[in-house]
C-alpha cells in the first residue's frame, strides 16, 4: 500500500459549518490534514478530494485505476442513489472502502441501502471524523484480508 485516494461526495464541504449534532464539528480541511498526517506516518501518500458533482466523482474513480492502491469513499447521499459510482468502482478495479461519518443503519430507512456496499471491500460508519483514520488503517491492512 503506497498510494491512497480519499474521495468525498456532495455537501461534505459543509462539514463543521452546519448540522454538527449529526456530522460533528470538524471541518473537511481539518479531516484532510489529519488524513495526510496519519497516512504519511504509515508511509502512504494520500490524495484527498471533495466534489458535489457525481460525474466528477465517477471520473476520479476511473482515473484511480493503476494509480492508487485503494480508495476510501464517503459518497454522501450518492451512496444511496448512484449506480454510476458503483459501476465506476467495478471498472476501476481499485479496492474501495466505504466510509460514513454517521451510522447510516441507525438513521432514516432510505439511508440503509448503499449501492457502494455491493462493491466495497467493507464499510466503516458511525465513528465521525475518526472514521477516516480507521479507514486509512483498514486500507493499510488490505493485503492481509483473504
Ligand atoms: O454519514 C455520512 O458520512 C453520510 O455519507 C453523509 C451524507 C448523507 O447523505 C449520508 O447518508 C451519510 C450527507 C453529507 C452532508 O454533510 C453535511 C455536513 C454539514 C452540513 C450539511 C450537510
Layout of helices and strands, plus pairs?
Elements: E1 3-8, H1 20-23, H2 28-41, E2 45-50, H3 54-63, E3 70-74, H4 83-92, E4 96-100, E5 122-125, H5 130-140
Helix pairs in contact: 2-5, 3-4
Bound molecules: ligand CA2.
The site of ligand CA2 has 16 residues, from loops.
Description of the molecule:
By secondary structure, the protein is an alpha/beta fold. It has one domain: Rossmann fold (3-Layer(aba) Sandwich), CATH 3.40.50. The protein is built from 5 helices and 5 strands, in the order E-H-H-E-H-E-H-E-E-H. Strands 2-1-3-4-5 form a 5-stranded parallel β-sheet, sandwiched between helices. Ligand CA2 binds next to loops.
Low-pLDDT runs of 5+ residues are none
Q: Can you summarize the main beta sheet?
A: 5 strands, parallel
Span between N and C termini?
16 Å
Mean pLDDT: 96
Amino acid at each position: 500500500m503506497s498510494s491512497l485516494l480519499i474521495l468525498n461526495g456532495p455537501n461534505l464541504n459543509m462539514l463543521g459549518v452546519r448540522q454538527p449534532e449529526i456530522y460533528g464539528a470538524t471541518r473537511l480541511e481539518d479531516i484532510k490534514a489529519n488524513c495526510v498526517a496519519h497516512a504519511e506516518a504509515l508511509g502512504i501518500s494520500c490524495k484527498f478530494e471533495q466534489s458535489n458533482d457525481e460525474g466528477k466523482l465517477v471520473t476520479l474513480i476511473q482515473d484511480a485505476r493503476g494509480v492508487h492502491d485503494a480508495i476510501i469513499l464517503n459518497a454522501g447521499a450518492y451512496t444511496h442513489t448512484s449506480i454510476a459510482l458503483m459501476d465506476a468502482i467495478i471498472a476501476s478495479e481499485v479496492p474501495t472502502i466505504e466510509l460514513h461519518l454517521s451510522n447510516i443503519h441507525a438513521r432514516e430507512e432510505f439511508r440503509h441501502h448503499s449501492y457502494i456496499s455491493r462493491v466495497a471491500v467493507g464499510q466503516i460508519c458511525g465513528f465521525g471524523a475518526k472514521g477516516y483514520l480507521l479507514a486509512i488503517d483498514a486500507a493499510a491492512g488490505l493485503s492481509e484480508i483473504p
